[in-house]
Amino acid sequence: MSELVIKDVSFSYLNGFSLRQIDLKVEAGEMVALIGPNGSGKTTLIKLAAGVLTPRQGEVLLDGASLKSLSRREVAQRIAVVPQYFYMPFAFTVGEVVMLGRTPFIRTLSGETDMDHNVAMRAMELTGIEHFSSRTFNELSGGERQKAILAMTLAQEPKLLLLDEPTVHLDINHQVAILELVRGLNRGQAVTVIGAMHDLNLAALYFDRLILLKEGAIFAEGSPSAVLTERTIHDVFGASVRIEEHPLAKVPHIILLPNESKIDKP
Amino acid sequence: MRPKKQGFLILTILAVLLVGSMFLASAFGAVFILPVDIAKMSLNKLPFVNLESTWQPTHEIIFFQIRLLRVVGGALIGAALATAGVLFQGLLRNPLADPYIIGTSSGALFGATLVIIFIPATLSLWGFGIISIAAFLGALGAVFLVYNLALVAGKTPVVSLVLAGFAVGAFFTAITWLILSVSGEFQHKLGVVFDFLLGAIRVNNWLQITVAACLILSGIVLARFFAFHLNAFSLGEEGAAYLGINVERDKLLVLGLGSFLTAYAVCLGGLIGFVGLVTPHAMRLILGPDHRLLLPATALAGASFLVLADLGARIIIAPTELRLGILTALIGAPFFIYLLRRHRKEYAF
Q1: Measured between CA atoms, how close is B228 to chain A, in angstroms?
Q2: CB-based contact (8 Å) between B284 and chain A?
Q3: Which residue of B has its CA nearest to A117?
Q4: Contact flag B244-A75 (C-beta cutoff 8 Å)
Q5: Closest CA to B310 of B275, B278, B276
Q6: Which CATH architecture has domain B56-344?
Q7: Which residue in chain A has the smallest CA separation from B157?
Q8: Which DSSP letter does residue B121 get?
Q9: A254 inside domain
């Protein structure tokens, strides 16, 4: 379990997009979602938290230590990232891809040990992919791939797991399966989770706290019911919605409203 | 991951194949030398071995002064180009990244030609010193030029890499022709020029081979140190960074090492294409994509491939010799087209 503090962080790309003065503290063991429209800075914030982008101003602290003071390898021993999509150019098997997760722990020439094999095997069991470990990664469906990537990041034994829209290309059954797995890790293995989420209802259903971004700044944050209001959705997304309560989970559920003309039809 | 024992077995088989290819290539030519004699002559060079001479003295001269030089030279060039191919392919995540196709060889040739023409004192030192340094700088320049031209949103897609490689390669080759054409040497050294541009093994003495062997073999050993990280690079530069890899450093070192191996191969044999394409692909089909086994296996297979190709170049239209680069292109180009077809999904509009 690790806590992450983003302290007064600003960042800008060459193309002009920037994040402005982000202050965010994620407690150890929390499960936090970053939400907001495309281009609001979710992915950029994930990359800053992962240390692959460096803030222009401010700093990112992992358990009190600035990411800048840690080597790439030290960061990877504690933080794992599930990206939206991996293109794999070569015919690695699922087992080999999962074993890549051990990279930050393996010495370049000695190769993987029995312990590395055990950790990779356990990661495959946790994600339920051990039965296709010898299949070629590229032959998997989107959902199976994402599970394999999740297993790879678990083999990294992270204290903090970052997800960059992990469900965005998946069918709904896989969306639910992936997020169930992630929440299981958060609750069972005490992994801190920060996920950029495209789907607001999924974010409300699976995450404890939501951070709503608009144009590179934090617009609102708090519990799903505090953040997802008709007002904030309108202000940030420019969309008219109605918020109902999810009948089972007791979290807000967003109802999309089509044009009035359509509603009037019998 | 495959068990270590199996990997060792495969490397042993490939090493035996290489020795076999070298025997074969030493035996055939204008004069046939019995493989038994080759074995005896070679053993005789070892300390404390003194075999009775059953072979003709002229054969000994042909074998040691001409044929073996060329065979060992071919093996070194093949190993260097094949290893460079695996390094480029792994780093650029692109199975078509052969040093010839992506213009690296042309860059090296350009660098070498500049020195050969404008610093005439070094003319006699083929493949040595300042020429190889210039070839290395030319190769490195071409790699980074092509890499940056081909880069689209953090990736080097097949099409843009091939196009950028073609453009840069054509440009460097054209300038090389230009320099050669306006230089006074051109008319007198047409044979050498053709050797360089069409690819032919040019090794003159054992000193040259010894230096080349030391450098190319250390390059191949060094490449093995990056094998594990190259596996992580198959997830892309960002994916590799997430796995704790210092991406910018590794990229510089791997591209540098690939350029170095290409440059040295070009100094010994000019432009020889497709070795770095055919052998890595064949090895990946047999052994899988794990670079820890792939790198040494491809080096051995590339060496065998080029030794046999050079044998073919010598005997196919005997008594005339075909230039080696022509033969490798005849084998490699259809293979390249096949790979391009296989990856067509990536550039369908």
Answers
A1: 6
A2: yes
A3: B1
A4: yes
A5: B275
A6: Orthogonal Bundle (1.10)
A7: A89
A8: G
A9: no
Helices (H), ranges, chain B: 4-27, 35-44, 57-61, 68-92, 104-118, 129-150, 158-182, 190-198, 206-233, 236-242, 247-269, 275-287, 291-315, 324-342
Domain of residue A149 covers 91-156
Q: Distance between CA atoms of A188 and A147, rounded to whole angstroms? A: 17
> Side-chain half-sphere of A124: how many Cα atoms within 13 Å?
22
CB neighbours of B182 closer than 8 A, spacing ≥ 6? none
Contact B289 A90 (CB under 8 A): yes
Say if CB A151 and CB A130 are below 8 A apart: no
With CB atoms and an 8 Å threshold, state whether A156 touches B243.
Answer: yes
Say yes or no: A68 and A183 in one domain.
yes
Q: What is the mean pLDDT of residues A253-258?
A: 88
Region B209-221 average pLDDT: 93
Nearest 5°: the CA angle B305, B311, B316 is 120
Domain termination site, one of A137, A156, A175: A156
Q: Which range (A33-37, A193-197, B45-49) has the least confidence?
A: B45-49
Q: Tell me phi and psi for residue A57, to 5 degrees.
A: -145, 150
Give domain status of residue A167, yes or no.
yes
pLDDT at residue B154, rounded to an integer: 66
Whether A94 has its CB under 8 Å from any CB of chain B: the answer is: no
Interface contact B246, partner A, CB < 8 A: yes
Which residue in the set B93, B244, B289 is minimally distant from A103, CB to CB?
B244
Q: Does residue A53 sit in the same domain as residue A64?
A: yes
pLDDT of residue B2: 47
State the nearest Cα–Cα gap between A72 and chain B, in angstroms: 5
**What's the CA gap between A51 and A33, in Å, rounded?**
18
Dihedral, CA of residue A49, residue A108, residue B247 and residue A139, to nearest 10:
-80
Provide φ and ψ at B86, rounded to 5°. -65, -40
A52: chain B residues, CB-CB within 8 Å: 238, 241-242
Shared domain for A33 and A48, answered yes or no, is yes
Q: Are residues A112 and A225 in the same domain?
A: no
Strands, E, within chain A: which ranges? 4-12, 18-26, 31-35, 57-62, 65-66, 79-82, 160-164, 192-196, 209-214, 217-222, 241-245, 252-256
